[in-house]
Amino acid sequence: MATEAGTNGAQVSGNIRLLSQTSRLRWLGHAFVLLTMLLASSPTHAQSIRDTIGLTQPKIVKIFGAGGRTNLAAYGTGFFVSPQGHIATVWSHVLDADVVGVVLADGRRFTAKVLGAEPQLALAVLQLNNAEGIEFPYFAVNEAQVAKMGARVLGFSNMFNVAAGDEPVSVIHGVIASRTNLEARRGAFESPYTGPVYIVDAVTNNSGAAGGVLTTRDGRLLGMIGQELRNSKSNTWVNYAIPVTELRESIQQIVSGKFTAKRDPNEDEPSSKPRRYKPLDFGFLLVPDVVDRTPAFIDFVQPGSSASKAGLKADDLVLFINDELIQTCRVMQDAVGRLESGDRLRLVVRRGNELVTVEMPVLKKSE
Questions:
Q1: What is the pLDDT averaged over residues 304-321?
Q2: What residue segments make up the domains of the chain, in order of their start?
Q3: Nearest CA to 225 among 189, 183, 172?
Q4: What's the whole-model pTM score?
C-alpha cells in the first residue's frame, strides 16, 4: 500500500510539473504575442510611416488656378506620373485659367499647361513649363495596386489649402470601407463618372483635395481623390477615390501624345470664337463640361454678384440667352463670350417647373 501510495504521489508530482511547464509555455506564448503587438506600435513602426510620408510627399504637387470666389476654391492637388514633369489631376474649374501655377513639395514653383483631358473619367494631365533637364519623383501608374476592403490607407492632398506656403501637402489616415460604383452628383448635374471607386472611412474629399492620391501604408499608389460630390440617393457627401487602374490607360496615352479627346464635329474651332466674357465675370459658374452635350446648369452663384442680384440660382437650367437657344454648356460659353461692354445679358432659365427671366448689365471689364 505504501509502495502504491508512493507511486501515485510520484505521478501526481509529475503531472503538476507537466502542468507547470504547460502554463509557462502558455504564458510565454501570450508574452510573445504581447511583445509583437508592442513592437508593431513602437516608434520603429511609426518611423516607417514617417518614411513613407517623406518618400511620397515629393510626388504630390499643389495646383493654383481659376476660382477664388466664395465657396469656389482656386487651388487643388496633382501627382507626378512621369520623371519629365507630367502631372495627373482632376478635371475641374481650377484648370480654367490662362496660367496654372504648380508648387512642389520643396517649394519650387512652375507654371503648367493642360496637355490633355478625359472628362468622362474626371481626369486631366498637365505638363510643367520650363522643366527641361529636370527629373521629378513620380508614381509609375502601370504599377498601381488594387486594395481590398479593410485595407489601411494614406490620403495625400492640398485640402483646405492648409499647406499655403512652400510646405508639402497634408496627410490623413483611413481605411477602405468598400469598393462600389459611383452614384453621385454635383448640384443638379449627375457625375459623368459612374465606374468603380474606393469608399474611405476618413473625410478625404475636401476643398482642394481633388487630384490628391490614396496610397497603401507603404506608399504604393491606389487611387486619385475625386471632387466633392453627394450621393445621388442619400444626398450625403461621399469620401472616395477613383482607382488608378481605371485611369492609367488614358494617363499613358496623354503623356505619350497618342490620346485624342472626344469633340463635337459640328463645333467650330475654339480659336475662331471670341472670349471677351466668361460666366464668372457675372458671378456664376456652370457645371463641369464633361460630355459632348452637357446641359447648361448653373452650379454656383457668388453672393453679392450681378448674377445673385438679378436672382439667378444654383441648379437653374439656362434655356435662352438674349433669345438664342442654349442647348449645351459650350453653346452658353460661346454666347457669353460674344457679349460686349454695354450689352444686356438676359437669361431664360427653368427653375423646377417654372420659366424665369433674369437680366443683368454687361459692365466694362477692368484692365
A1: 93
A2: 2-41, 53-262, 270-361
A3: 172
A4: 0.68
